[in-house]
Amino acid sequence: MEAKLNADAAELAKFSDLAHRWWDPAGEFRPLHQINPLRLGWIEELAGALSGRDVLDVGCGGGILAEAMARRGARVLGIDLADKPLKVAQLHALEQGVTGLQYRAVAVEELAQQQSASFDIVTCMEMLEHVPDPASVVAACAALVRPGGWVFFSTLNRNPKAFLLAIVGAEYVLRLLPRGTHEYRRFIRPRELAQWVRLAELEVKQLKGLTYNPLTRRFALTADTSVNYLMAARREAA
Fold it and tell me: Per UniProt, where does S-adenosyl-L-methionine bind (predicted)?
């Protein structure tokens, strides 16, 4: 029997409908453009220089992070199940002349069966809260990283403050994101993600918060993990 695909058709359609806007820094994906330098710097701070490394970006969408890592000299594979954003990512990389970057429409669980322990770094940003079984994604990411390699996640905490700021504030008041981008019930508490990480035989190395100042309109990495947060994990060296 074929395994059930760990994806939500409505979520894929949601991002596919906005695919043509992915690389507009003033459009619906403006927050991704704004936080990208922060998360890229954080990845390099922990994992070291990306040049010459094999990197997998899970749930890459239109390729904002994947392309940035390729520009740093990494050999990057970006995967997603939404076809339109992948085509946008491929076209943008081609237009910009970015090398060392490939994209595939494949589930991370399927790729884990094909290319186990093939990557030095695996990133999975702003994706876990959009799939039916996030623990399965975490396990697949862990299977794909080499011994001594790093896995980076980012997602949203589940508490009243996160509901008010990430949904009411970001989607309805400040309009940083399109309405309906997130569903509160899919948010993930850090301790839940940490448990999945440990079950996947990874070690949690660092937890960072990502905050937004509406007055300065700037994001920052902080110790406040109550809304958006990032988690770095590592597989033990052989």
Answer: 39, 59, 80, 125
Determine the pLDDT at residue 84.
Answer: 95
Domain range for 226 = 9-235
CB 145, CB 51: distance < 8 Å: no
Task: Tell me what pLDDT residue 1 has.
Answer: 35
Residue 97, C-beta contacts closer than 8 angstroms, at least 6 positions apart: none
List pLDDT tens digits, range 62-75.
999 999 999 999 99
* Residue at 104 is within a domain: yes
* CATH number where 202 lies: 3.40.50.150
Residue 2's pLDDT is: 44
CA atoms within 13 A on the CB side of 19: 22
Helix 64-71 vs helix 30-47: angle between axes, to the nearest 10 degrees? 40
Q: Residue 132 domain-assigned? A: yes
The strand pairing partners of 232, in sequence order, are 152, 206
3-state secondary structure 62-95: CCHHHHHHHHCCCEEEEECCCHHHHHHHHHHHHH
CA–CA dist 44, 50 (Å, integer): 7
Cite the annotated binding site by residue number: 39, 59, 80, 125
Q: How many domains does the structure of the chain reveal?
A: 1
CA–CA distance, 33 with 162 (Å, rounded to integer): 21
Pick out the residues of the known binding site for S-adenosyl-L-methionine. Answer: 39, 59, 80, 125
With respect to residue 123, please indicate whether it lies within any of the assigned structural domains: yes
215 class by beta-carbon count within 10 Å (0-12 exposed, 13-18 middle, 19+ buried) = exposed
Residues in the chain where the model's pLDDT stays below 70: 1-3
Residue 21 corresponds to which amino acid?
Answer: R
